[in-house]
Design goal:
One of its GO terms (molecular function) is hydrolase activity. The chain is α/β, with parallel strands linked by helices and about 750 residues long. Helices cover about 35% and strands about 20% of the residues. It has a seven-stranded parallel sheet with strand order 11-12-10-13-14-9-15, sandwiched between helices. Helix 8 crosses helix 25, helix 9 runs antiparallel to helix 11 and helix 10 packs parallel to helix 11. The radius of gyration is 30 Å and the shape is globular. It starts with 13 loop residues before the first helix and ends with a helix. The C terminus is likely disordered.
């Protein structure tokens, strides 16, 4: 596994570590070149003096632990011939783990002597209450005196104070990766440092060669910190440079200005609004109005708490564009939400939305709904209104993106709940305009400042934090059915009390059920029937609804709503619920966003631990939308003290969406936040933490703005441009470019 030829980051691994190992690295870890391998960073470091806390391991987890052999035992197997070797290992935390080896392997008993330390890798299972690893891969740390136990040079990576533990695979354990890294680092010619010398000096960054060496083979904790800080900087700087360049280019694009028109639809709408806009709505509205007046495309993020009135702000922007002779399109994630937006806007606009009808206002426009479930005749009619420009406001789902949906003059695109749409879908709607349209992105999931800076750094951001007058507070409580099953009976009685008082309720389940089997719709995901640890399947709408109708909620008028229902049936159910003809809606997360029934006051979320923090916050925003107080009960079997229970307790303790967004960020995979999932490729952003590295990200933003102002295309910094292209690959850059 050695080579005398100097290697570069582009050298194939086959030339450095041999064909067999290179194939395994490629097949299992997608590592092909020396550069791929040296940028495959350790996920953590074990220390000889501070051993891995075995007690923290979860069943089902793929782990590598540093532990000491405590005792061994050999006994005959009951079901087949041969012996079973059981090895008990532990660490200073008091945690113990059983290693089991099947077959006659006497040499292992000699190797795994009590007192020796080793690294053991495998999947944690449980047998008769004891955690164990079956047939784990392992390497002993050299203090033995026989030939098989000696580890020598093969495991020198693990003999120092800091032992790197890599993201690994069963076929390629962490010590094999470390061995390969050692070979590559010993022959690698350090790449040209991409960071400008002035930036390195100002930010006190170590060189790239030192950083790559120290992150894999740290000589001290201090040097490891410096290496990680440098490599995190590279990631943050690459993202910020891409966003700043994108923002600069967007500012140079031409767009048609859409200035306000005195005495137009917007003025007429404001005059007929039945309530006062909040100060926040007025401020944000003024920001958007100013953006629309400029001959460059607006690219603005509008975030706000559930129920803060974002839709009215967006509608006012749409009316300004219609007043200026253009059209506005709103893209909603579900047919339920698109239809609700349609009904809500028709109610708010009244005669202003009835162009061509009796009783229409003089300046009236039309509001058209385009969804996949429209009948052929209705679809033809709607598309003709859109193509002819008579429909100033067009609402729809992804059906708006299809070929054949043409606009006369698309001036504004509003994307509701942008995280529900893929990059290509959002871009397809923007491409229907002759010139880049103005874009307003809305989300009811509050975004921590660091996320906004890193993921939406090319957008101007507006925030609505006030709730409109008349909105009621929402109380939330956890119902711990494992400890206190009687609490669930009380929850059902509480729901009946609300219905008896003339109100309505939701019961939310994480799954549709067998009648809706298959993958979820765009609005909801269908979780697996059971997880790897054998927990029961998540509760399902189609199973829970009849049980409630026959049991604790007998006599109530119950409707069912989920993403697999035909569109007309979904719409009929929602209309019935909104009209008060149903007391209770048993639903999936299809109701998560936008559903507005002011008379609904109570929500019971079953298996609440199966939902994410932001999802629970969105869901409970469906109650308390009128004058009566809202109540949300989070039903869970999660044990007290578990991470799932702590998450639910946090949701119940606050209605501050920004606090919950920070918590959500702590618990989510940050790769998803950074767009790795949306881009469909392995993310090259491996070290950057949006939560822990906020200061570094802010500093990178400052440097990126200064550098791009001097050298917009990085022509004077070719090594940096190449580094940015490698870290923020083409698909990732497209993801950022399309917003």
């Amino acid at each position: 596994m050695t080579t005398s030829e100097p290697a570069t980051v582009d050298t194939p691994l086959k030339a450095l570590v041999g064909d067999k190992t290179a194939k395994a690295l490629a097949a299992h870890l997608d590592l092909h070149t020396a550069g791929d391998l040296v940028y495959h960073f350790p996920r953590r470091y074990d220390e000889r003096g501070e051993h891995t806390d075995i007690r923290s391991l979860d069943v089902g987890e793929q782990v590598t632990v540093l532990a000491q052999v405590q005792r061994t035992a050999v006994r005959p197997m009951r079901q087949r011939r041969g012996n079973l070797l059981e090895v008990t290992v532990g660490d200073d935390s008091g945690g113990v783990l059983t290693l089991t080896f099947f077959g006659n392997q006497a040499w292992r008993e000699r190797e795994l002597r009590p007192g020796r330390w080793g690294l053991f890798a495998g999947k944690v299972t449980e047998f008769r209450g004891k955690r164990q690893l079956n047939g784990p891969e392992y390497v002993m740390l050299g203090d033995g005196d026989d030939g098989e136990a000696a580890v020598g040079e093969e495991v020198e990576e693990f003999a120092g104070a800091l032992i790197p533990v890599y993201p690994a695979a069963a076929a390629v354990p962490t010590w094999v990766i470390a061995r390969c890294v050692r070979v590559v680092l010993d022959t690698l010619t350090p790449p040209e440092d991409p960071q400008p010398a002035a930036v390195r000096a100002d930010r006190k960054l170590v060189g790239i060669g030192t950083a790559l060496r120290e992150i894999h083979r740290p000589s001290s904790k201090e040097n490891l910190y410096r290496a990680r800080r440098r490599l995190k900087w590279d990631e943050a700087f690459a993202v910020q440079l891409t966003l700043v360049q994108r923002k600069l280019r967007a500012a140079a694009w031409p767009a048609k200005a859409r200035p306000p028109r005195a005495g137009g639809l917007l003025d007429a709408f404001d005059a007929r609004l039945p309530y006062e806009l909040t100060p926040g709505q007025r401020t944000v509205g003024a920001e958007i109005a100013a953006d629309l007046t400029v001959a460059h495309p607006m690219h603005r993020l509008l975030q706000g708490e559930v129920g803060s009135g974002k839709t009215v702000v967006a509608l006012r922007a749409m009316l300004q564009v219609v007043d200026a002779g253009g059209q506005a399109a709103l893209l909603a994630p579900t047919e339920v939400l698109a239809a609700q937006h349609h009904r809500g806007m028709l109610d708010l606009l009244g005669p202003l939305a009835r162009a061509g009808e009796l009783g229409a206002a003089d300046d009236a426009t039309r509001v058209e709904l385009v969804t996949g479930s429209l009948g052929a005749a209705a679809r033809r009619q709607a598309l003709a209104e859109v193509a002819g420009g008579r429909a100033g406001i067009v609402l729809g789902t992804h059906a708006l993106l299809y070929e054949g949906v043409d606009f006369a003059d698309l001036g504004l695109v509003v994307v509701d709940e942008q995280h529900r749409f893929g990059v290509e879908q959002r871009d397809a709607l923007r491409s229907k305009a002759d010139q880049p349209p103005h874009v307003l992105v809305m989300t009811a999931t509050p975004i921590p400042r660091t996320v906004a800076m890193t993921v939406y750094g090319d957008l101007e951001t507006s925030t609505l934090s006030q709730l409109p007058q008349g909105r009621s507070p929402i109380a939330s409580h956890v119902v711990p059915v494992a400890e206190k099953p009687a609490f669930l009976d009380r929850a059902w009685r509480r729901l009946r009390e609300e219905v008896a008082a003339g109100h309505q309720a939701y019961v939310v389940c994480p799954r549709i059920g067998d009648s809706g089997s298959g993958s979820g719709s765009q609005s909801e995901e269908e979780p697996p029937r059971e997880d790897d640890n054998g927990r029961r399947p998540p509760l399902a709408v189609t199973e829970v609804a009849p049980l409630l109708a026959e049991g604790p909620l007998h006599g109530l008028r119950i409707g069912v709503l989920h993403g697999k229902l035909p569109a007309d049936e979904k719409d009929a159910v929602m209309r019935s619920f909104a009209a008060g003809d149903l007391d209770l809606l048993v639903a999936t997360t299809v109701i998560e966003v936008g559903v507005d029934v002011p008379n609904a006051t109570v929500m019971i979320v079953l298996d609440a631990d199966r939902f994410g923090v932001s999802q629970l916050h969105q869901l409970r925003g469906r109650v308390g939308r009128g004058s009566a107080a809202g109540l949300c009960l989070l039903v869970s079997e999660a044990a007290e003290g578990s991470s799932a229970r702590e998450r639910l307790d946090a949701v119940a303790s606050t209605t501050d969406g920004f606090k919950l967004a920070e918590l959500d960020l702590e618990q989510r995979r940050e790769g998803d936040v950074l767009g790795a999932t949306q881009s469909g490729r392995r993310s090259h952003l491996r070290l950057l933490s949006l939560r822990r590295d906020a200061d570094l990200i802010r500093d990178a933003r400052v440097e990126a703005i200064a550098l791009v102002e001097e050298d917009p295309e990085l022509e004077r910094h070719p090594a940096l441009a190449a580094s940015v292209a490698a870290l923020v690959d083409e698909e990732r850059a497209e993801y950022l470019e399309k917003g």
